[in-house]
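Sample intake sheet
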Amino acid sequence: MNYWLMKSEGDCYPIDQLKKDKVSSWSGVRNYQARNYMKEMKVDDMVLFYHSSSKPIGVFGLAKVVKLAHPDLTAFDRRDDHYDDRSTQEKPIWECVDVQYVSTFKEPITLDEMKRHPQLSTMKLFQKGSRLSVIPVTEKEYNFIVSLVKV
């Protein structure tokens, strides 16, 4: 099993929406490295659901991968903000995985809180220039973050 941090803007697709939807395609990612990470994902990989560009910024809950990488249909939809005329049904450029809601934390684990813990100091999230919407995390990082959840 692998572990991931997947970012969504809190005002765009919050964890509450995933909870309502139950399962959703993680579509609209337009970064090659983030796409490649999704292509590495396996069913049942666990996901830290992270809100960026929100107050507060941080991990709000958990999800899991339930469908392997497949063509991102938003790339073909001219009305979608993520449309890409270079991507075709015959030769798709962009892919996504489907994720399923697991749980919402009582309180988010904020970015500031995560930065205070030396156990998380080497997370890819904190590396200079890391603005990817999909980032691998180690099992230790994942378990440590989950251990911070208040019940």
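Comment: The first helix runs from residue 15 to 21. The chain has one domain: 3-147.
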